[in-house]
Design goal:
There is one protein chain. By secondary structure, the chain is of the alpha/beta class. The chain has two domains: about 180 residues, 3-Layer(aba) Sandwich (Rossmann fold), CATH 3.40.50; about 90 residues, Orthogonal Bundle (N-(1-d-carboxylethyl)-l-norvaline Dehydrogenase, domain 2). Helices cover about 45% and strands about 15% of the residues. Helix 10 crosses helix 11. The longest helix has 20 residues. It is globular and about 55 Å long. The structure holds nicotinamide-adenine-dinucleotide (NAD).
Length: about 280
């Protein structure tokens, strides 16, 4: 099955990014969220992102306008009932996702693919919330979506070959390279990346160096394009902590225990870029 129409749930960092790259690739997109203010914020981000491409001469103004015209929004899932693919990019909560998937399974066409962008929850467990788990798959984008070239396509226990192949084709159609991963905590990239971010947070907590020097160390000493603490701020420190907690619980290894620095910053409401401060201040 080829995906021509996407219904994306969540207009946050990931949902808006997925809507953007899909619309640019020519797909029709319906983006839903729970309130108009979140939709407005997501659309403003997309307009800003596409506007920057036009300013840099990497996109024609007409192509930007056409991409924006392909995105419609709603607070009602029924607005995307005829979509080929439902991709959930709502907060990382099993209960919240359960409600969304049950609603999606009841609303969408019976042959539609239902997918999750979860970073850390089990794709097979989430698949239990839909009527046909063979059509359920993980499609895990990376942040920021327009810039990151990878998508992990995650095969749940019951995901069919057809569903997997449609998910891979969708990822490639929106300009990404897909790798296929079995349903295992953190998949490939986060399982390896997050313990490294956590170690950077521990080094910060133990005053080994300042945040800036830790990041410069990893940029110049390990050729990371961005330092681990700046990356944690971009991901969101609450999301970073939640991913580590899941890895610790699922893999049973103390090395995934979130650094006290993450706990302190999250408790203080310093969630990274999205809240205006985290390991760094963003002057908002
Ligand atoms: P976010 O907080 O930026 O956005 C989530 C959005 O979902 C919010 O706008 C919220 O209002 C909306 N929402 C809440 N309940 C909803 C519902 N019932 N229906 C529709 N929308 C609803 O979060 P995010 O960073 O975009 O993360 C979304 C998902 O993507 C999570 O599962 C996360 O693990 C995963 N993910 C995040 C990253 C990252 O770097 N942030 C990377 C890959 C995957």
């Amino acid at each position: 099955m080829s995906v021509n129409k996407l219904l994306v749930a969540g207009a946050g960092q990931m949902g808006a990014g997925i809507a953007q790259v899909s619309a640019v690739a020519g797909l029709e997109v319906v983006m839903i969220d729970v309130a108009d203010e979140f939709i407005a914020r997501g659309m403003a981000g997309i307009e800003k992102g596409l506007g920057r491409l036009v300013e840099k001469g990497r996109m024609e103004a007409g192509a930007r306008d056409a991409a924006l015209a392909r995105i419609s929004t709603s607070t009602d899932i029924a607005a995307g009932a005829d979509a080929d693919l439902f991709l959930e990019a709502a907060p990382e909560s099993m209960e919240l996702k359960q409600e969304l998937f049950e609603k999606a399974a009841a609303t969408l066409r019976p042959d539609a693919i239902i997918a999750t962008n979860t970073s850390s929850l089990s794709v097979s467990k989430l698949a239990a919330f839909v009527t046909e788990p063979v059509r359920f798959v993980g499609i895990h984008f990376f942040n920021p979506v327009p810039m990151m070239a990878l998508v992990e396509v995650v095969r749940g226990e019951q995901t069919s070959d057809e569903t997997l192949s449609a998910a891979r084709s969708f990822a490639e159609a929106v300009g990404k390279t897909a790798i296929t991963v079995t349903d295992s905590p953190g998949f490939v990239v986060n399982r390896i990346l997050f313990p490294m971010i956590n170690e950077a947070a521990n080094a910060y907590h133990e005053s080994v160096a300042s945040a800036g020097d830790i990041d410069t160390g990893m940029k110049l000493g390990a050729n990371w394009p961005m330092g681990p603490l700046a990356l944690a701020d971009l991901v969101g420190l609450d999301t970073t902590k939640a991913i580590l907690e899941t890895l610790e619980r699922e893999l049973g290894e103390a090395r995934y225990t979130p650094s006290p620095a993450l706990g302190e910053l999250v408790a203080a409401g310093r969630l990274g870029r999205k809240s205006g401060s985290g390991f760094y201040d963003y002057g908002k």
